[in-house]
Design a protein that fits this description.
Elements: H1 2-15, H2 18-27, H3 35-55, H4 58-80
Length: about 80
Amino acid sequence: MERIVFFLAPTLTSIQLAPQVYKTFRTRNVSGLSVYTFLLAWFASIVWGLHGYYTQDIPVMVSSAMTLAMDSSILCMLYLFR
């Protein structure tokens, strides 16, 4: 059970932004999104990735990379679609 939680938590963290990325890309509407929220999330993903690297925690590193990619895509769309 513990092993399932160790892989489920990072997986859910990684995919939590997928619906927002899809909707924002499809509608090209960023009016309700806060750039500060996604900048903070982007920075937090980098810090978690560094934590995973230094502790050699592969699930945390992968989760952080995926979340960073989604945060980055939202930030790019905030810039492009404003």
